[in-house]
Design brief:
The complex is a heterotrimer of chains A (236), B (663) and C (250).
Chain A lengths: L2 H7 L1 H26 L9 H12 L1 H32 L13 H4 L1 H25 L5 E3 L6 E3 L1 H8 L3 H28 L8 H30 L8
Antiparallel strand pairs in A: 1-2
Helix pairs in contact in A: 1-2, 2-4, 2-8, 2-9, 4-6, 6-8, 8-9
Chain B lengths: L11 H11 L5 H4 L3 E5 L3 H13 L2 E5 L17 E2 L11 H11 L6 H21 L24 E2 L5 H19 L2 E4 L2 E9 L2 E9 L5 E5 L2 E4 L20 H8 L4 E2 L4 E7 L22 E5 L2 H8 L13 E2 L1 H5 L9 H13 L11 E4 L1 H14 L7 H27 L8 E10 L2 E2 L12 E3 L17 H21 L13 H20 L3 E2 H16 L5 H21 E2 L9 H25 L13 E2 L2 E2 L3 H4 L1 E6 L6 E6 L14
Parallel strand pairs in B: 1-2, 1-9, 2-5, 9-17, 18-19
Antiparallel strand pairs in B: 3-4, 6-7, 7-8, 10-16, 10-22, 11-15, 12-13, 12-14, 14-15, 20-21, 22-23
Chain C lengths: L1 E8 L8 E8 L6 H14 L22 E2 L2 E2 L21 E5 L8 E3 L2 E2 L2 H8 L21 H11 L6 H5 L6 H13 L1 H4 L2 H14 L10 H5 L7 H15 L6
Parallel strand pairs in C: 1-5
Antiparallel strand pairs in C: 1-2, 3-4, 3-5, 6-7
Helix pairs in contact in C: 2-7, 3-5, 5-7, 5-9, 7-9
Classes of the chains: A mainly alpha (236), B alpha+beta (663), C alpha+beta (250).
């Protein structure tokens, strides 16, 4: 076995892969949220649709996107394999289970991760697939561009007017929050970054991050649904 | 039988160096052909097995534990002595030698003790190189503290877990040799018999505790490092499975048990709280550096405390008797263990004990809180601190020094020792007696060696604090690797010893028969209940204070108990399976025979010395030695009816025999 | 106090185990193991086979005792081995569930006793400093800072009981392994072979069938010697550095 395979298949190497892909996906969440927040600009989706076009046509972003898909899949497969190996290593379970020694989310990362994966599939089917591989979306013009682009904005509006889809999104984001609650600080520990001086800081940032980011995402379906139900008049 | 100690000739301080440079060696190519069995993998055994493996011998090491790291050496708390003189306080090899001889009440061999003092320095070097995290000063150099019976600071320590750290060092060295294939490790194997061929020790019968199978192991020689026999008292600071079986089976095969009556009763243990108690817990002697021992002056105060109407805090300073400071002003609270223990017994016998059982004295840190608190306040720049601040700061210093011990005390007793003075009482802790060995650590059976607490060699009638770790490691690392060559150099032409020899078969059959006999009794009393009764007899008649009448009575009681045991013990299960009760039964049977020998030894020794205190032989309440008649090692040959004593005369050329005085 | 004990009984590693219920009368001053002694004496008096549990020093240092009590390795008290746990921690009338360590790398031998020789193998793989007897220089030749020695001690205080593995939902031995790697790696004497050590110890740990660390922190919470998971981070760091940034290219 080459040193690299040996390294990457060792218990620590495998956790390193989880940690690095996890941190990449954390970064991705930030970028994704920044883009999505354009949905809250009251311009009939003009900036969002322009942004969506850019994301699907810029060559550099295309490359990064492929990296992103790869890391999601790697993170998921590796995570499931680790969970299975760990279940085997544990053998049998205790008759009395306790939550006194470790947080609930830290012990359920695999379940949380699987739910998130399912959510990602639904989410990508709703938007990404329709945007990239179908002609279901209407063509609209946007400010500052001399060509027409696909109207993803209306698709968002449409989706988030259905209550059960909104519910799926909210549950998915809550799952993400729990996953991040442990995952954020855990990825640093796996990288070997643990120090009396700055670990408390990392942990606090992780907790804030795991609440703020999913909440940021969650605001969008909530507002769109409220608008559709005419509880509020956000876009008028 | 003539006991030849084989002490080398020459001046005391040159004996070992000269002997070491002139002794017979085994060439590397021959070492590869020689097998050595090491039984026991505590400090002495692990150190010996590792070192002999490094030298190139084929070593087979045995422990009844699941891992060598469990040996009871791990529980030693306080520290390890070495004549390094790092503190520049007047220590030297001679002084350590002298302190040990004097501390042992002039009942040990000069040459052995001097060698111990010499190699003590190498031990510290070796352990530091192995990664033992000894306590250090801010400058990065090693720290020391002082222990009972000495006036210098020569004790190296790793918080209150020195034994653990030293054992792990030896265990790691042993693990390295196991990985290299130089040592074959047999965990969960208990030695049940010694096999002799043509009078020489050539192997053992061991029981695989997991399967119950008896197995034969052969070698050119056998090294026993199987610890002490304090558990003969049932309640002691020893671990639950510490036992005398390996040594005792060797005795039954002709080895001699030397000075069995020398038992060390440690003065600072957590008092007994009830009948169900399974063991006693030691509080390190280092606590006596800072704690002051006292009892109430008035019996009525003690009564009130016993009944829970008062606590130690309610007794005013004027009504407290700091009896060690009063009786022994020169050493105060740091008198040797035997002296401190007896003084506690005297106080409790006078009715001044401070536990509900009446068997406890106070170990009080209040003045240490004050002393350290003042100095800490000063260095923290606090002017005119109030009493509360001083006490608080002082408690912090004490916590830093003894935190884990205080925590342990609170867990066991349920009382906070930072608020109330600790209660302590003496308990059986260490046995100075053991297999008789000569200067080479070889017993009277050729090819059978004994190391560490299992031998009798270095501590005389009383061991000084922090010297057990020193002796165990000295024997294992720096003595046996040399002296074993004296025997093995004669064996290089001996073919590999085979377990097919008839002697192995005979021993195996006998062992099997004994195990089956225990199973077949099918009586009504548990092994544990016999052990408890044995312990009570030993404690009552052969404990801290002994007299001829009691000893004779005790012997009779043990003989009766032994007869009852072999008629009425109940051992569940079979001999061919994992059976903890059967293991215990064999050990208790051996303890009963040993106990009787201890009593005989105590009866034979008509004097008081060290851990052996005969009520008939005292002077002004202090122990009275009889150098004229008893300056000898009593080595006992076992006989089912009447064990026989052999004597090795001790000669002192370098120290003057004086009445041990700590006043 | 009157207690109901549900104790795990299992004849050997292959056998299927089950809980057995017993009533025990105990005193609050007893240690947990002394309470089990009482149970065993009763069983023996009824000519039944006693419950096998591992124990030895009964002062919290040998690392032999290992029970999971009501789902907690070494019971409910922080920083305490079972042998130091006293019945004061329970109430009259309590039902107490006692199980063995559960991990694939710790097969049950009998009842509550498990085989932990896999931990020995990890040490044999490199948990030592390669120095033969007699080779050492003077102990004070290499000064070691008080704080460094103290940190090394904190890691070295591990008693090898395996509570970390037992408490870990993944059956991982990372805390055990990291404690030894940290202890030796922090000291100048041990630093010399630190790279080789960390690699072979981690390889052995993986080979023994222990799970992978997912940083739940359960090990740290249950460790009777309160060893910190910052040691695990140090192990991760040292392992990666030993592979990716080794001084010699090995």
């Amino acid at each position: 076995m080459s040193w690299l395979t040996k390294f990457l298949t060792s218990s620590i190497g495998r956790k390193l892969i989880m940690s690095l892909t996890g941190l990449f996906l954390i970064l991705f969440l930030v970028v994704h949220l920044a883009g999505n927040l354009q949905l809250l600009i009251n311009d009939q989706g003009s900036s969002f649709n322009g942004y969506a076009y850019m994301m699907t046509h810029n060559p550099l972003i295309k490359v990064i996107a492929f990296g992103n898909y790869f890391f999601i899949i790697l993170h998921a497969i590796q995570g499931i394999m680790i969970a299975l190996a760990n279940r085997k290593a544990k053998g049998s379970k205790y008759a009395v289970s306790t939550n006194a020694t470790a947080s609930w989310s830290s012990k359920n990362m695999a379940i949380l991760g699987t739910l998130i994966l399912a959510f990602i599939c639904i989410h990508m089917g709703d938007f990404w697939y329709k945007m990239k591989f179908t002609d279901q979306l209407a063509m609209v013009s946007v400010d500052g561009m001399d060509m027409q682009v696909k109207d993803l904005y209306s698709q968002v509006k449409n989706t988030f007017s259905t209550w059960w889809l909104v519910l799926i999104y909210l549950v998915g984001l809550a799952t993400l929050a729990f996953h991040l609650w442990h995952g954020f600080q855990s990825s640093f520990q796996s990288l070997g970054i643990n120090h009396k001086k700055y670990t408390p800081f990392i942990q606090s940032v992780g907790k804030i991050f795991s609440i703020v980011i999913p909440l940021g995402f969650a605001i969008i379906p909530i507002i769109y649904f409220a608008d559709a139900m005419e509880w509020i008049n956000y876009f008028s | 039988m003539k006991l030849d100690a084989k002490e080398p000739a020459g001046e005391l301080d040159e004996k070992w160096t000269k002997y070491r440079s002139t002794m017979n060696l085994v060439a590397p190519n021959n070492k590869r052909r020689i097998d050595i069995i090491v039984v026991g993998t505590g400090l002495a055994g692990a150190a010996a097995a590792a070192t002999l493996g490094e030298l190139g011998y084929n070593v087979k090491a045995f422990t009844f534990h699941d891992s060598p790291r469990r040996a009871h050496s791990i529980a030693a708390q306080g520290g390890i002595n070495a004549a390094k003189n790092y503190q520049n306080d007047g220590d030297s090899v001679y002084r350590l030698f002298y302190d040990t001889i004097k501390g042992g009440d002039y009942r040990s061999r000069e040459s052995n003790v001097h060698r111990l003092a010499e190699v003590s320095r190498n031990i510290i070097d070796q352990c530091v190189a192995q990664g033992v995290p000894f306590a250090r000063e801010y400058g990065g150099l090693l720290a020391n503290r002082s222990f009972g019976g000495v006036q210098v600071s020569r004790t190296f320590y790793a918080r209150g877990q020195t034994g653990q750290q030293l054992l792990l060092g030896a265990y790691q060295s042993l693990s390295r040799q196991i990985a290299l294939g130089n040592v074959e490790m047999y965990n969960r194997h208990e030695m049940l018999d010694l096999v002799k061929i043509d009078g020489k020790a050539r192997g053992i019968i061991a029981r695989n505790l997991l399967t119950g199978k008896l197995e034969k192991f052969a070698a050119h020689c056998v090294v026993l490092a199987t610890g002490g026999y304090g558990n003969v008292f049932y309640l002691s600071t020893n671990a639950m499975t510490s036992n005398v079986t390996a040594s005792w089976r060797a005795v039954r095969k002709g080895a001699l048990m030397a000075n069995p009556c020398y038992t060390q009763i440690h003065p600072t243990c957590i008092p007994v709280s009830g009948d169900y108690q399974s063991k006693l817990t030691l509080m390190s002697e280092s606590l006596r550096n800072d704690g002051r021992v006292w009892v109430p002056k008035k019996v009525e105060d003690a009564k009130a405390i016993q009944q829970g109407k008062k606590t130690g805090l309610d007794i005013p300073e004027a009504d407290r008797d700091y009896y060690l400071e009063r009786r022994y002003p020169a050493f105060g609270n740091l008198v040797p263990r035997d002296v401190a223990s007896r003084a506690a017994k005297v106080a409790c016998d006078e009715g001044k004990g401070v536990a509900p059982t009446g068997l406890a004295v106070f170990l009080d840190f209040a003045s240490a809180f004050e002393r350290y608190g003042k100095s800490k306040a000063l260095s923290a720049g606090i002017n005119n601190p109030d009493k509360a601040t001083i006490t608080k700061l002082g408690k912090e210093v004490i916590e830093e020094k003894y935190g884990n011990l205080f925590q342990m005390y609170e867990k066991i007793s349920g009382e906070n020792p930072y608020e109330y003075p600790m209660k302590i009482y003496p308990a059986v802790h260490y046995t100075m007696g053991g297999l008789w060995v000569d200067y080479n650590l070889e017993t009277n059976v050729p090819g059978l060696f004994a190391l560490g607490e299992a031998n009798f060699s270095d501590h005389g009638a009383n061991r000084l604090g922090a010297s057990a770790l020193m002796q165990g490691l000295a024997d294992g690392y720096f003595v046996i690797p040399y002296t074993i060559g004296q025997f093995l150099s004669q064996e290089i032409r001996t073919e590999k010893i085979e377990t097919s020899a008839p002697e192995f078969e005979v021993a195996l059959k006998e062992t099997k028969a004994q195990l089956q006999k225990l199973i077949d009794i099918k009586g009504n009393q548990s092994v544990e209940s016999f052990h408890k009764r044995l312990g009570k007899i030993m404690w009552d008649y052969c404990g801290m204070a002994r007299n001829a009448e009691g000893l004779k009575k005790g012997r009779q009681m043990i003989r009766e108990l032994r007869a009852e045991f072999w008629k009425d013990v109940f051992v569940p299960g079979t001999a061919d399976e994992f059976n903890t009760e059967l293991e215990k039964a064999g050990r208790v049977a051996d303890f009963m025979e040993l106990g009787e020998t201890m009593i005989l030894d105590a009866l034979d020794r008509n004097e008081s010395c060290g851990g052996h205190f005969r009520e008939e032989y005292t002077e002004n309440g202090e122990a009275k030695r009889n150098d004229e008649d008893y300056t000898y090692v009593a080595a006992w040959e076992w006989d089912d009816n009447e064990p026989i004593v052999h004597k090795e005369a001790l000669t002192f050329k370098n120290v003057e025999l004086k009445t041990r005085s700590y006043k | 106090m009157n207690l109901t004990l549900k104790v795990w009984r299992q004849n050997n590693a292959q056998a299927k185990g089950q809980f057995e219920t017993h009533q025990v009368v105990a005193s609050e001053h007893m240690s947990f193991l002394e309470m089990l002694d009482v149970l065993n004496e009763t069983l023996i008096s009824e000519k039944k086979s006693p419950v096998v549990f591992a124990h030895d020093c009964r002062e919290g240092i040998c690392g032999t005792c290992n029970l999971v009590i009501n789902g907690r390795a070494h019971g409910p008290q922080k920083g305490t081995t079972v042998c130091q746990l006293h019945m004061r921690a329970f109430k009259d009338g309590d039902t107490i569930v006692v199980e063995p360590w559960r991990a694939a790398a710790f097969p049950v031998i009998k009842d509550l006793m498990v085989d932990r020789s896999s931990l020995d193998k990890i040490i044999q793989a490199g948990g030592y400093i390669s120095v033969n007897t007699g080779q050492a220089q003077d102990a004070n030749d290499i000064p070691i800072g008080k704080d460094v020695a103290s940190q090394a001690f904190d890691a070295a205080t591990c008693i090898g009981c395996g509570a970390c593995v037992a408490a870990c939902p993944n059956g991982s031995a990372m805390l055990f392994t990291s404690a030894k790697v940290a202890h030796l790696g922090l000291l100048p004497q041990g630093e010399v072979e630190a790279e080789a050590r960390v690699q072979s110890m981690v390889n052995q740990m993986d080979e023994e069938g222990f799970g992978m660390c997912s940083n739940t922190g359960a090990c740290e919470a249950e460790c009777p010697k309160e060893i910190s998971i910052s040691n695990i981070a140090m192990l991760n760091r040292q392992y990666m550095a030993s592979v990716l940034g080794s001084k010699t290219g090995v």
